[in-house]
Write a structure and sequence with these properties.
With 304 residues, the chain is of the alpha+beta class. The chain has 10 helices and 11 strands.
Length: 304
């Protein structure tokens, strides 16, 4: 867990938080199954200088639509203000986490902003756990219906084995998985047309309706964390996970073709995050994949 809060003589507060990669468990964690997530190399850095005036928000790096980005920041700040009084001021955000691609950019931003504004008020009199609970309350306001796995891994900045309703447990990845992650590729298939909360609501409605295909897919995904933890063949588990995501309806046909070609060449891959019903499928995590496959299909490989 990185609770470092840097403060200058001019009362400027700076902190950061990483993105995340869900190795297995998308959607299944919402229904109480376990998942495994790891922090990503990409980070968001926030610098805050309270001045008691109006909020002045500036961005650097990946921002997407500036108007939407600032609106989301104000949503976070409003939620922070519900926890305790905070001072307006200058907020500078430097972001390298891909936006809207299932890499935890919204949760990372919530944590980084929360650490700044609450840390400045607390002046280190509050414990990290107390600040954590405040920021978790903010997360639940701005990202309703979240499973908690994003918050757990981004807060801890270590691989976690997560099960809803239980404390996240730090996990030591096997050498096979660690080596696979070091050489893995992130392939951008484009942003989905739906936001994650919308997709989670859709999945919950299908679960309530008892769609047999959905229930089977959720259980397949839900079993993957334990299978990896127990040392089953990594590539086999990832391929099974991918097939279950197809049955959930969150992997578009072009992304399916991409992953099929990767598998035919001896690799494996899966969508990370919520995927999408329409539009792109977000980010794909590919192992032992020839980058020419993605490039030939017009997909962009994201460099750390």
């Amino acid at each position: 867990m990185n609770m470092d809060l840097c403060m200058s003589k001019a009362a400027t507060y700076s902190t950061s938080a990483p993105g995340k990669i869900i190795l297995c468990g998308e959607y299944a964690v919402v229904f109480g199954h376990p998942g495994i997530a790891v922090p990503a190399e990409f980070r968001v850095e926030v610098t805050y200088k309270p001045n008691g005036k109006d909020w002045a928000i500036t961005w650097e790096g990946a921002t997407g639509d500036p108007k939407k980005a600032n609106t989301y920041v104000h949503t976070i700040l409003d939620a922070c203000a519900l926890q305790q009084t905070i001072q307006p001021g200058a907020l500078h955000i430097k972001n390298s986490i891909p936006l809207g691609k299932g890499m935890g950019s919204s949760t990372a931003l919530t944590i980084a902003i929360g650490r700044c504004v609450f840390g400045s008020v607390a002046e280190f009199h509050e414990t990290p756990q107390q600040i954590r609970e405040k920021i978790l309350s903010v997360e639940n306001i701005v990202n309703p219906g979240n499973s908690g796995i994003d918050f757990a891994v981004i807060w801890e900045e270590r691989p976690v084995y997560f099960k809803k309703g239980q404390p996240a447990a730090q996990i030591a990845l096997s050498p096979e998985i660690s080596d696979a992650l070091k050489s893995a590729e992130l392939i951008d298939t484009g942003p989905p047309h739906e936001a994650t909360p919308e997709l989670v609501t859709w999945m919950l409605s299908r679960h309530v309706a008892g769609e047999p295909a959905i229930e089977k897919a959720i259980h397949t995904i839900g079993a993957c964390a334990a299978r990896l933890k127990n040392g089953e063949d990594f590539a086999t588990v990832i391929r099974n996970h991918h097939q279950a995501q197809i049955h959930l309806g969150i992997v578009n046909t072009k992304t399916q073709s991409l992953i099929k070609k990767i598998e035919q060449e001896g690799g494996c891959a899966k969508v990370i995050g919520a995927g999408g019903r329409t539009g792109g499928s977000g980010m794909v995590l590919a192992f032992d994949a020839d980058p020419k496959i993605a490039e030939a299909m017009g997909f962009k490989i994201i460099e750390n």
